[in-house]
Predict the 3D structure of the following.
Amino acid sequence: MIEVRFHGRGGQGAVTAVRILASALYLEGKYTQAIPMYGTERRGAPVVAFLRIGESRINERDLVHNPDIVVVLDPLLSRTVPVTDGLKEGGLIVMNFPKPGNEAGIGGRFRLATVDATGIALEALGRPITNTAMLGAFAKASGLVSLESLEKTLLEQWPGRLGEMNLRALRTAYERVTPPVDVSGIQALGKRPQEEIFSRDVSSWRIFKPQLDEGRCVGCRRCYIYCPEVAISMTQGKARVDYSSCKGCGICGEECPTGAISMIQEVL
Amino acid sequence: MSRPIPLHEIGEKEYIDPANQACQGCGGAIVSRLVSKALGDCFVRAEVACCGPAFMNIRAPSIYVEVFEGAGALMTGISRGLKRIGREDVVVLGIIGDGGTVDIGYQGLSAAAERNENILWVCYDNEAYMNTGGQKSGATTPYAATTTTPIGEYSRGKLERRKNVPLLMAMQGAPYVATASVAYPEDLLGKLVHAKGIKGFRYIHVSSPCPTGWGYDPKDTIKVARGMVQSGLWPLYEVSNGILKLNYKPKELKPVREVLKMQGRFRHLTDEEVDRIQGEVDAFWSRLVEKDGGNIF
Amino acid sequence: MRRWEVMVGNKAIAYAAKLARVQFISAYPITPQTSVVEYLAEMVASGELDAEFVNVEGELTAQTAALGASAAGARAFTATSGPGLLYMHHPMHMTSGGRFPVVMAVIHRSVKGMQPDHSDMMAQRDTGWIMLECENSQELLDTGIMAFKIAEDERVRLPTIFAGDGYILSYTAEPVEIPAQEDVDAFLPPYRSKYPLLPGLADEARRVQMEQWGIGQDPQLRWRRQQEAMEAAKMVIREVNEEFYKWFGRRYGNGLVEEYRCEDVEAFIVAMGTIASTARTAIDRLQARGKKIGLVKLKSFRPFPSEEFKRLGAMVKAIGVIDRNISLGSGGITFQEIRSSLYDLDERPRVLGFHAGLCGKEVRVGDIEMICEKTLRAAEGEEVTPLVDWV
């Protein structure tokens, strides 16, 4: 049996991704199990979903704790989420990351394949929903499922234009994903502490972040008052962003009357 | 009546912790933050099932009880209990969703208003059961698509009219009733500060758009909320001892079409349906204008 | 000075609440409980009792408001019957889950009609409330006072029901001794919550509140803690029962069960509430005829005194259990729990079940004599059938 863990953020379609994979693999004669992990997590919040692939009906009903493969749908997730926890030695990580695997800050006795799924999704769908691109990358990097089965399942899920758009994301990522590289020599980046009840780092929730042009800030306080997160404070008449509390919703940028705040894509 | 608080007069001190568990661009999270800024540090907060408990960043003592239907009762008990232990100085606040207010919680709400319980009920209205994925509530705007009023060959979305709970509360004789919107923090904070100084049942119903459920980009929460007010879909008014005051009264309302088309839940509307909504909004608005400054009874 | 009055069960309950100086009462009418809240309303109106008296709009609110008042740190009380108790079911879980020591009087009314049986309370069996059953008005008054002391004990912190049968108790008048207020005050000091819902709460209190929310912990822990509190309550109930005796000269068995004429018996019957009262006469008559049968009154239904039944079961050859309830598709509830309590005995007595008094069906002394005789035949080794009977 092969076990897979998907890391994503609410709204990126991790649950849909495991379901599509489960269907595609069943088409190829495998038995599968797609498990969502529901909680009170919201759009943008880190989420996980699991997939089991076997030769006959799978009876285990617990979650996947020692995956063979980890799929990371968002490049920023690994900052706050321990994505390699429990990953088997020699296991595979397929990660949405715009640079080669040895620059992702992930180290250990694993192999790492990367693909710029956010870029591909923005190109193909116009929105940073990366699940279908990551399915393409998964198919190529793991060799567990054929592109044809995935295409067939995808079109059944979304007939018409939406399906075509997702198909493009799937195929592009299949072509562009890097071959897995050995990352056993890489020093892993430290993780920030999580699981605080009242205050948490939500920086991994965002794709875009607000950038303030101090010269244009007139201190009107609109961004400050409309921020749902208390991520903006006023210092000497100017707005200041605390990025660890910012989910990148973009309200501040939208409401700034002088255009002093622009939303830029987060880079690593 | 309330006095709007200019943005530059709003205090710097925060009474909630940075970041929360809500979706990006959550209107309810803005309500939660602004309410605590208006009330300061002498309140306790009652919570029932809704997105609210998931915000999890409020510093004030909170009690979360999974009685969806029981917000009015819970606040009644807390308020009376605090009176008994000599702490009537503490404001008993509920930040309750529209389901817990206008649907399953309505019996308790109405009874608490009847008893004139010394509580402050803030309904943050995202117009559906967003915590469970967006099912229709009695607060949902007509014609909206929700997960239980989907669009299909035999369905054009939500059929029923909104239950107008602020006016119902006013008709019950509550000392202070107001509507507000996250897009108008000056007005909202003014109303909260005013309500804080009143003893008895106070009800503030706040329009809190939900990007996830309404189908718009999170950055547009304030824009959508503002559009609702400017088009008359969400009039801002208050009723103090029976006297109604319109707090936002432009010379001319903007057409509803603009704000409707920003939202995925209205994507299916035909021109006739938009006109029908416009007609209903205009009719209600003209009645509000008629009553403005006068007694609603 | 001795004070007494001939009063109905409902008034005895109101006296218990008054003597306990409850600070919050949520009131909603339902027959046959209604006059409990009417008596309390009069006491508040006349100034005899200084409490928040809230006329709520339904039992769901009655329970939830009592929960809220208790959370704020006030001593809270409510009362209900039958369908009203069913309507409270949801918030009752919250009251016990939040560990709020609300006390509630239940005047039994069947869930299938106006007349009493225990189906209303049994439907709340697993809500995590302590449940104490009474057989006369005096016991209602006394148990009501004890209920607050048990519920508020730091080792327990669980809401508590004290209950009696509708009509048979609620509207039957009998002489009741009324304890002096100053003695009750000494026995039951004012409630001081260690965890009130207030700004500026200490860290420990905050932690307890978080635990009540179930945040950041083993998800089963709240259930486990509550079960531990129920176990602890067995000891606390016995202690409170003894302390009550020292102050007021009355006690109810050991607080959990009461053995009536169980010395040298071959068998005993088990009953709760008013049936236990009637059963005393039946036992007296049978023992006068030389029959070796006694009565065990089950007073604490929750926590269930399994250990007591194991101890008592070892001394006899047969037990007849009278259930004023039924778990449809399964059987008499106390019948099964008592049988289960005996499982670890090397030599188990026969256990017979009897359904009696459901929907208020009259239970007469003769009925109980018949139950006793069947139980005695089983004790003598006779094969008696059926195992479970309707009386």
User: Anything to note?
Assistant: The CA atoms of residues 30 and 55 of chain A lie 5 Å apart.
